[in-house]
Amino acid sequence: MGKVKIFDTTLRDGEQSPGINLNHKEKLDIAFQLERLGVDIIEAGFPASSQGDFQSVKDIATQIKNSSITGLARSKKEDIDACWEALKQSAEPRIHVFLATSPIHMQYKLKLTPEQVVERAVESVKYAAKKFPYVQFSAEDASRSDWTFLARIIEATIDAGASVINLPDTVGYGMPKEISELFEYMTKNVPNIDRAILSTHNHDDLGMGVANSLAAVQGGARQVECTINGIGERAGNASLEEIAVGLHIRSDFYKTGTNIQLNELKRTSALVSRYTSMPIPKNKAVVGSNAFAHESGIHQDGMLKHKETYEIITPELVGATSSNPLGKHSGRHAFQEKMKELGFKGTADELNQLFQSFKTLADKKKTVTEDDLYALMIDQGEDEQVQTYSLQALQVSYGTNQTPTATIKLVKSGDKEITEASTGSGSVEAIYNTLAKLTDYEYRLTDYRIQSITEGEDSLAEVHVKLSKEEQSQSGRGVAHDVLEASAKAYLHAVNRMLNEEKRKKEPSTVG
Ligand SMILES: CC(=O)SCCNC(=O)CCNC(=O)[C@H](O)C(C)(C)COP(=O)(O)OP(=O)(O)OC[C@H]1O[C@@H](n2cnc3c(N)ncnc32)[C@H](O)[C@@H]1OP(=O)(O)O
Ligand SMILES: CC(C)C(=O)C(=O)O
Ligand SMILES: [Mg+2]
């Protein structure tokens, strides 16, 4: 069996997404990327719909060399003529003529009888075939059409010159088994079907776009129409990246493949997302940022032991990279691996302590980044010094028209709990006034700096302070999820270092 042709309609049906309006340059950029991706046919637009669409189709048709270009036309001479004017310079001019075949569309929208629909379709395909070497006919709303009538119009349009017959699930109504049977039925019941290839075009109203496309391939379709990121009318079209990767990964099942250069998928998806301002959901198959991310401990452990335990698609296949983000579901194996990567050389006990701090942090933060882990490592190094004072509890009350008050409980010398409260003109000053009382020292705060270690709302805050007393000064650093807690920690860090330094000076020198 030959390869399934990929017909990309991002620039036509994709652009029909509410809110999307691509300009000329954006359309050309996307067309060039689709060509790089290895798309067989690019539906560049609907030339009769506007002057802008006409010009884009024309320019794409003259500039793209390695994909065939097509344009959409209603079953009307004016639409076909506009399409010809836009596409006549293309290397392989193709037209896509459509007319609806379902009872509801024929009666209410077209206001035509089934006989008139067959007549109009045949007349249009014949007219198009006089100009175009390749004519595709689409029976719009095929999935809600009567199958006997559909077989009749397919036979008639093939006789009129159509070499591709598309059976769209225009409103995303079909179910996979039904779509597969529809294609099998037409393959068996249309006498001249071997003179055309069958094409499938699915919408995602019931979330079946990709499943129906693959089911159609099972039923005999040899062309699949789809869009990048699944953009399109209403809930969108079937997504190209999912179809191409599905056919590749399960080629054992479908016994076919595509010409798509899979490692261009991620880039193409990102380009379309940027130009259409339609963000890609994190959990989107193939191209979502979580598609190759493994967060839970058991999965990360499995991945470290053998990637295929949890990865059926390698990120490299689609031009993406994998990641093992650490979060609250991560276990010791993945944590240890990451710490090794970061250069941790401590003992098993130290690693264990770090793992506990990491778990505490991960409970508050969605993803713990490398920078967060560095911060934890550095904090641990500091913990090895004598900590005269350590923070037990901190409460700050703050409100407009209210004096900020801090209540702080410290542990002194490892066992004694001491508590104090003080006010200040701001929350940080209230904290520092309270800490000054608790630590019996009157330091001057000569520097206070705050920075976020990582990006995002849930990043760790890092506070740096400098405390001075007479000739002495000492810096301190505190890291916490909360700015006020980091401020208190930084102050205590400086006090503890100051006390350690004083003690060291008093100790008799061992040198000499
Ligand atoms: C399933 C799909 O995705 S189909 C493609 C949808 N895409 C678009 O509609 C692209 C943007 N559309 C447009 O710019 C405009 O709708 C145009 C330029 C195509 C037509 O504009 P207008 O002439 O103002 O017509 P309008 O859009 O209001 O109505 C559509 C007309 O086309 C007719 N029509 C619909 N499909 C077809 C068809 N396949 N063949 C012939 N006529 C058709 C309708 O019956 C209606 O005809 P009527 O005016 O006699 O009732
Ligand atoms: C024009 C046709 C193919 C279409 O987009 C549809 O039926 O969804
Ligand atoms: Mg469509």
From TrEMBL:
InterPro entries: 2-IPM_HCS-like, 2-isopropylmalate_synth_dimer, AIPM/Hcit_synth_CS, Aldolase_TIM, LeuA/HCS_post-cat, LeuA_allosteric_dom_sf, LeuA_bact_synth, PYR_CT
Keywords in alphabetical order: Acyltransferase, Amino-acid biosynthesis, Branched-chain amino acid biosynthesis, Cytoplasm, Leucine biosynthesis, Manganese, Metal-binding, Transferase
Catalyzed reactions per annotation: 3-methyl-2-oxobutanoate + acetyl-CoA + H2O = (2S)-2-isopropylmalate + CoA + H(+)
Pfam family, one: HCS_D2
EC number: 2.3.3.13
Pyruvate carboxyltransferase domain boundaries: 4-266
Taxonomy, superkingdom: Bacteria
Family listed: Belongs to the alpha-IPM synthase/homocitrate synthase family. LeuA type 1 subfamily.
Protein name (Swiss-Prot/TrEMBL): 2-isopropylmalate synthase
Organism, as annotated: Shouchella lehensis
